[in-house]
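Practice problem: predict the structure.
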Amino acid sequence: MKKTVRKSPAKTATRTKPVKKSARKKSKKTAKKQPKSKKNKADKIKQYRWPKGKSGNYNGRPKGVLNYKTIARRYLTMVIESKNKLNKETELLTIQERLILDDFHDALFGSKTGRAYARRNLADRLYGTPKQTIDHKGDETQDDFDFQKLSDSELERLNSLAEKTKN
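Answer:
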């Protein structure tokens, strides 16, 4: 390592610390890297694409495999011995009946937020979700706007926008 000597007017000679190699390396690492072009990325992806007319799932879904709904329906119709929370009796209930009774129990005796959720859930299931409509009369116009207050440049801009919408 070389030590550099720099002369200053106040002092005859002062020693400065040499620049370390590690400091130079850090500056290279922190420098922004140029993003790779999209063309290079597309070329790399092309090699992994399926050829035209071919599929990645040649055999498809095996026959006899049950889907989620079928499995769920099978479990919902299973009969279990369960305590009815409303009349406190032990009964034979399907899992679906038990879930509905739990909703009714929550609607009547649950926490405040649980009751509101359970009641809305039951009402939606029994009567359907209500339609949310917005009344709007599209033929009404706003007559109180004064176009005379606009400058010439604003009027020209409005005219150009109106012509663009016509085309």
